[in-house]
Amino acid sequence: MNRIDPAILKRFLRDKGLSMGDLAKRAKVNKQTIWRLTAGKVTNVRDRTIDQIAHVLKIDSRVLTGELNAPEASADSEPATSKNQFNVRVGTAQRNALLLAARRYKVAPSQIVELAPFLFVWAAEESLRRRQERLSKLDQVLDETKTLGQQFRHLSPQLNNFLYADDAIAVEQSSIDERDLFGSSIKLDLAGVGPDFDADNENPFAMFLRELGSSFDPVATFEEWSESWSPRYRICPDEAVELVGGDGDRADEILRGDVALNELPKEIRKHGMEKKRAEWVRTKAEEYRRALAEDLAELERLADQKEVLK
Questions:
Q1: For 40, 81, 131, 195, which has the most beta carbons within 10 A of its beta carbon?
Q2: Residue 122 and residue 61 share a domain
Q3: What range defines the domain where residue 55 resides?
Q4: How many domains in the chain?
Q5: Which CATH number do you get for residue 24?
Q6: CB neighbours of 239 closer than 8 A, spacing ≥ 6?
Q7: Burial (Cβ within 10 Å: 0-12, 13-18, ≥19) of residue 244
Q8: How confident is the model over 163-196, as pLDDT tens digits?
Q9: Contact call for residues 137 and 172 (beta carbons, < 8 A)
Q10: In angstroms, rounded to a whole number, what is the distance separating the alpha carbons of residues 275 and 260?
Q11: Which pLDDT value is given to residue 20?
Q12: Of 43, 71, 99, which marks where a domain is finished?
């Protein structure tokens, strides 16, 4: 009989995206036994039990007992369970960001995904709270200005012209109450926004996230987001640079999403292969740009053809 290292067992449960119940069911081991193993409360484990657990986790049984070193965790490893799969399209830049964040903080990508709803709710609620706080302050200052303006009635109406101010504040309050993060329910003509208004950069949620990101620069910088487009941000640039051996151009291609890190060949993922990774990134980025140029040329050709047929 041997002892399973609880830290190693918990690590592979996390990396594979398995719960203790999942492991117990697949390995045909009592769930209470799995719990006791992860808690380090079992000192003697049958070899058959170790083999069954190792088979489910797809590792050598000697890794579980500490006789062999555990393989280095791959930041882009996929969970073994389909329960963690979502029918959601994610851009290459965002997927790369997930893997880079996992690399920086030495956690599994699945752990970040599991926390994402909580962090989104926090960001949304904090954005609404700050909007409410600023709106209340604006309303108070406006009331004080109106009161003070009455003492200069000889300058009226120029000084005391607050046309649409109260209506605009009411619309913003309604937007906050409806938890309208991007302010999309606000009538822009009523709010006095001109034609140069940039909805991707100047909506309240994007402005909040940009302000938040500035606190963590250069680890995280936020660029833009609207309800019509995916968010644009850059996180963990140092990890991208480290991944390709200090090549800043290749790191930028990773951060932009010109290449997909989850497609990185296994043979160049390990330490010491930075130059090989940089070359792979360069080649893939060139292929991406070439394909993009061909697509644009085809679109232009079709547009010209349509124009001729008019």
A1: 131
A2: no
A3: 6-71
A4: 3
A5: 1.10.260.40
A6: 100, 103, 104
A7: buried
A8: 678 888 888 999 999 999 999 888 655 555 555 5
A9: no
A10: 17
A11: 84
A12: 71
